[in-house]
Amino acid sequence: MKAPNGENLDKKNLSKDFLDVITKEATSLLDYAKKADIKDLVSIISLLLNTEGKVVFCGVGKSALVAKKASATMSSTGTPSVFLHATEGMHGDLGMLSTKDTLIVISYSGASKELVEVLPHVRRLGVKIIAITKSRDSKMIYDYILPLGELKEACPLGIAPTTSTTLSLAITDALNACLMIEKNFKPEDFASFHPGGSLGLALFVKVKDLMQTLNLPLISQDTKLKDAVLVMSECKLGSCLIVDSKGKLLAVLSDGDLRRSMMREDFDLSKPALDFANKHPKTIDDANLLAFDALKILEFNKIQLLVVIDKDSKVSGILHIHTLVSAGFNVAKS
Asked: I want to staple 55 with a disulfide (CB 3.0 to 4.6 A). Which of 81, 98, 326, 330 is the partner?
């Protein structure tokens, strides 16, 4: 093997080689979907749904990496799961298993020495075994199986795990999706397991968590425009909320409304601010709305402030786009 220096690369052939691998792996997925041996699928899903303990994924080599990812995905979507390395299992890690668990073993060849040796001990503990492997003739013991079938690896030598690991990963994703459907796993359930990062923001944070409820720029319907401008400047939100004597929202006066009003012939700072305000502002009446969905409303309507009202149209709070930015939401650039 020679060490490449990156010079004189054949861009045309390089692109072809790159896309050939993608095509081969994609084709393997489509071929599997057409002729998959899923005789045990119903029994497998039933077993996983009725597992009182945890689902344990097991593998060695590249299959172990697939197993780790599958376990992480399952844990994050409502099914407790851990990863067990077959080699470590023979040296004490079998202690993580209980009779209430189910084990999913992944190995394309089905002949890996470490797996063949550890599985009888798993069976001895009374744990049911699901195999994802090449064929039903595998040397591994199992209770149920999802055969991968005969595959040709996509690497140039046809040796390195590529097609087999891609298909194995897809099968674990499909199993997990079936579990989510059967459990009626909802976005709010997903959010509860992903409170951090962009996923947490999108699926967990609600308007009530971010909206401003104190020091609101409220003015009465009789407030003159010049006084409204002062309130707008003091609150630094770029808007005033005009309410009636009972606190019901009547209109919103934004800095944009103010600029537009200056172009009107009847512009007069001594007139009521209500004369120049937007009497049909965008509002929401559900503080439990996801902040991500509120952001969509702001962006779609190209506004910076959303008023939160209660069932009686009284102002409960306001959500400003700057608050969302400070909280870490990605705001589309205009």
From this structure: 81
User: What pLDDT, on the 0 to 100 scale, is given for residue 2?
Assistant: 62
Tokens of 111: 């002949």
Say which residue the tokens 């041996």 belong to: 37
Residue segments in the chain with a per-residue pLDDT below the cut of 70? 1-7, 197, 333-334
- Alpha-carbon distance of 142 to 105, in angstroms, equals 9
Q: Are 329 and 295 in contact (CB under 8 A)?
A: yes
C-alpha span between 208 and 138 (Å, rounded)? 55
Q: How many angstroms separate the CA atoms of 305 and 320, rounded? A: 4
Residues 132 and 242 in one domain: no
Cβ(282)–Cβ(249) below 8 Å: no
pLDDT in the model for residue 130: 98
pTM tops 0.90, yes or no: no
- Please check whether residues 165 and 231 belong to one and the same domain: no
Q: Are residues 63 and 99 in the same domain?
A: yes
Question: Structural domain of residue 68, as residue ranges?
Answer: 13-185
- Report d(CA 206, CA 61) in Å as an integer: 43
The burial of 36, by beta-carbon neighbours within 10 Å (0-12 exposed, 13-18 middle, 19 or more buried), is given as: middle
Judge whether 8 lies within some domain: no
- Across the chain, how many H-helices and E-strands are there? 13, 11
